[in-house]
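The authors assume throughout that readers already know how a fold can be written as discrete tokens. In essence, backbone conformation is discretised, so a fold becomes a row of integers matching the chain in length. A single example would do more here than another paragraph of explanation. For illustration, here is how one protein appears when written out as sequence plus structure tokens:

…
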Amino acid sequence: MRSMKITNICCIGAGYVGGPTMAIIAQKCPHIKVTVVDLNLERIAAWNDADVNNIPIYEPGLSNLVAEARGRNLFFSTEVEKAIDEAQMIFISVNTPTKTYGLGKGMAADLKYIELCARQIASVAKDNKIVVEKSTLPVRTAEAIKNILENTGNGVKFQILSNPEFLAEGTAVQDLLNPDRVLIGGDQTDEGLEAIASLVEVYANWVPKTQILTTNLWSSELSKLTANAFLAQRVSSINAMSELCEKTGADVNEVARAIGMDSRIGSKFLKSSVGFGGSCFQKDILNLVYIAKTYGLNEVADYWEQVIIMNDHQKRRFASNIVQTLYNTVSGKKITFLGWAFKKDTNDTRESAAIYVADYLLNEQAQLMVFDPQVKEQKVLADLDYLDTRTAAENKSGITVHSDPYEACKGVHAIAILTEWDEFKLYNWQKIYDNMQKPAFIFDGRNILNGEEMKSYGFIFQSVGNSNK
């Protein structure tokens, strides 16, 4: 199948997906001009900062990639219409949060930003375009985009492709450079297959064609939701067993290692913790639940919803255990959170377990000290506002964000590990213990510290999925 030679790409959305993905395309395809556009002036200014270390997304290796391609064939701009007009291929990579209003509230994806993009493309485009869904979208969204684009009356023809991202934050650069697979879905017409071939040729600059899968639109859209649902289910499954391990004296790490060696199961996503977070898992599962319910598949919906229920339970259980262990009251007590991002090697805090544990403890009138190597004070306080609960609003004065971990731990009653940053393992824990209130407690929500070592310093130590006797 012949393909159009792509020399100009536009990406609408300069966030966690759009920025890194376009940086890799620009670096691997120097013959293609790549322009990332966003209406957020502050975000675009950060991508263009003279000091490339100040770009808004923290991913290991990303700043070097941006430095290499920026100004050569990678550009960041707020001139959305100009970029749309010039591009042959337009990636839509805007936010698709869970709806907070109306029909489907709390479950369905909010597609207002997607629709706004489609209408803007329709109003600007003067020649034929390939439009690529890069945001995570519910099945058959492409149909809605197509209806908007094809009813402009200006004679421009559009081909809609689904190209879902399978990135794990913290390893996004490596995931893009060496993907397990690239999935491209499109119409199975001559024009659709030609558009698919054009995107295949872009990725083929660095991805073997054997790892580029092509499907119809609907299979591609559903594959993304299904992948995240399966991964999240594994986390909730091992976390369900972690509670049983704590009661019976089993060690969840040993259980995970034993079942992970089963080739039918595998070892990935069997790390017990305080719970999963991030922008994808909860949003995509709730989306899947909503889609199942709209088709009357209530048992299917209930099955997947239980994954979310288990995850919420794990976060509440972790917070409740801190209160119970600290003699059933944390009122006025100082507790340090080491970590605020939802996982290591990213500054993304969306749906982070730390936010919900903090909300619970603030409601119990605890004084929280927060340190995260990549998350700044402004973001921490904004996350509590996002909860939109009276608890956070009333008690935000009870949270202090520190730039030094040892200062954050000085004089506190307990430390909670909420993100698995590698540097936490390397701290001088004896020094930290010596400067804490006694008895000094550690609650390891990520199972990264050596329990026996911590106890040898004098800590009362607890970790998820261990009886801690």
In short: The radius of gyration is 24 Å. The mean pLDDT is 91.
